[in-house]
Write a structure and sequence with these properties.
By secondary structure, this protein is of the alpha/beta class. The chain folds into two domains: about 15-95, CRISPR-associated endonuclease Cas1, N-terminal domain (Ribosomal Protein L15, Chain: K, domain 2); about 100-280, Four Helix Bundle (Hemerythrin (Met), subunit A). It is about 45% helix and about 15% strand. The chain has helices at about 65-75, 100-110, 115-130, 140-160, 180-200, 220-230, 235-240, 250-260, 265-280; strands at about 20-25, 30-35, 35-40, 45-50, 55-60, 65, 80-85, 90-95. Strands 1-5-7-8 form a four-stranded mixed beta sheet, sandwiched between helices. It has a four-stranded mixed beta sheet with strand order 4-3-2-6. A hairpin with a 5-residue loop joins strand 3 and strand 4. Helix 5 packs across helix 6, helix 5 (about 180-200) packs antiparallel against helix 7 and helix 5 (about 180-200) packs across helix 9 (about 265-280).
Length: about 300
Amino acid sequence: MSLSNPVLPPLKPIPIKERLSILYIEKGNLDVLDGAFVVVDKNGVRTHIPVGGVACLMLEPGTRVSHAACALAARVGTLLVWIGEAGVRLYSAGQPGGARADRLLYQAKLALDADLRLKVVRRMYALRFGEEPPARRSVDQLRGIEGARVREMYKRMAKKYGVEWRARDYDPDTWDASDVPNRCLSAATACLYGVTEAAVLAAGYAPAVGFIHTGKPLSFVYDVADIYKFDTVVPVAFKIAARKLVKVEQEVRLACRNIFRETKLLERIVPGIEEMLAAGGIDPPAAPEDVVLPAIPNPEGMGDAGHRA
């Protein structure tokens, strides 16, 4: 067959809002077969993963990834995240295309200007708590108010589900010694951060350029994820903690996957980012004429900010 008539049709991108949110892979080889991801376990059993249909693949210890799989992930915009067992550590992440210069400049301008940054932070506060923050407060003051409210929300959530609660505590080096509620919360937020990072990257922004959180590789991811945390993964974590199971991590993951689908989280994140940043009141810079297009050309406009076209 000639090269002009390939066996497989050209790949077409799937908008981030239409994808399965997250999948975990452990103790298997991630490769490509017939144009799709395939996981081969130690017994040779193959499990196919729909190409481009997943926003984020979490790779646990015991997973090996081929060059072809990494290349395919980059082409279809699937984020690969290398994590520790049960998600207690995040070692590395492979960008699905990376930040766009025009979106990155827009984000950086908002973060570097003190007045614009404060406007964005105030909007994040309003989205998170459903009310406008107190007037004439600095970013540091709003951060302190937010922290106090979050601690109180944890207490109320624990009381609602009948869970004994002391304080939020996360230390990956003492994971097994942590109490069950904190283990559930840590596993749940790891799921949320993975999905949020995939959405941030798909929209063309930089995970490290944050507004409330700063100085960390995922500062902006934490900013965005916090907006949705108490509507999604925190109730799930406390609900499972109340069941007093010994091994809670898998239960938490499955429950998070379901709640992401039920709340249509991926449909909400990218428009939410645009709303947060629009609070700065400045127009995003126009894309350069010589802008590099996506690896998968999309001749028809999709009208979806969650796609990198």
